[in-house]
Amino acid sequence: MKILEGYRPPKISTTEQTELLSVIVAAYNIGGYIEKSIDSIRSQSYSRLEIIVVDDGSTDDTGRICDRLAAQDERIQVIHKENGGQGQARNVGMAKAKGRYITFVDGDDWIDPDMYEKMIGALRQQDADLAVCRYRRVAKDHTDDRSVDRAVVFEEQETLEYYVREKEEYDIQNAVWNKVYKSGLLSGISFPEGKWYEDILFTTMALSRVKRCVYLDSACYNYIIDREGSTMNTQINPRTFTDHIPAYYEKTKFLKELGRQDLADIHDYFFYKRLLLFYSRLEKENIPEKDAFLKDLERIIRADKDRYKKVFGCPDADPRDYKKMKLFLKSPALYSLWIRLEERVVIPLKVRVKRILGK
């Protein structure tokens, strides 16, 4: 890993924009967002683009807006299809892509005007096969931008390692839309169809192939975090059990088959922490399936109890998390009581002590 402080990707003049970038946009019932999203792609300073918009059976005016924009810009092609989910829509887009590079945009988000010029410039200069950028979390009342003035070059499986270890200082994440891939990197890889959280396994497989990645630690992508109807903003629901949790098991399986048992254990540590978080969140929700979902989560957590000593002993693990897990296994009720005490008393007390010491 090499850190490049104050890194600036090289500018790419129009005459140097010789390599085609395929931008795949999956769109479903986002008529209030799609025009801003596509316009942000059309206005890129790197203009050698093909913009493949897959209208996934929208029942609002999304498809009509896409057709109107395509009539204004010959780089846009719109594919209308029956609803099959975001994974299938992206697969359809990839099958049509002809670019040297491939990237994705969610149709309710938008991108900065120079995003692709920066990322392709960095790819070329660093001789990388993947570029990743940080992204902004955009809410109705605020924007969270954690940009840092630097870049990082990862070699071989370092990108995969930092992704699995969920290092907060590097916004690699499951998402495919903050990445520009050399097309060969994705050969033979497709998104699971008919599933939510389809990015998890796709991203893991793609990152396992990376020889060199350049990570731009400044935000170029604007991700809406509070759109109603978004998959990512949906509370715990049946898809948590049919799609989300199984995707993490598939990720573990893939890492083991890759010969990275060490990363499989680290991934499982974060996965089991996430299961406890799901349980805590679910207890606060008021939904008809709450009791049944709690029982399902408890069953899933208890099923892997023989692995916990090893997994919670991995180098990235916080010993306090193993204590929480053991408390849960002893009594979910006691665990829930402790979490409520921690949230209402312990954490606020720590915050007050830090403020006092800070003064």
If you consult CATH, what is the topology of the largest domain?
Answer: Spore Coat Polysaccharide Biosynthesis Protein SpsA, Chain A
Measured by DSSP, the beta-strand proportion falls in 15-25%
Low-confidence stretches: none
> Which structural class matches the secondary elements?
alpha/beta
What is the string of helix and strand elements? EEHEHEHEEHEEEHEHEHHHHHH
For the residues shown, what is the average pLDDT? Answer: 93
Overall geometry comes to globular
The tally of strands reads 11
Largest sheet: 11 strands, mixed
Rg, Cα atoms, Å: 22 Å
List keywords for this structure.
359 residues, alpha/beta, Spore Coat Polysaccharide Biosynthesis Protein SpsA, Chain A, 11-stranded mixed beta sheet, 12 helices, 45% helix
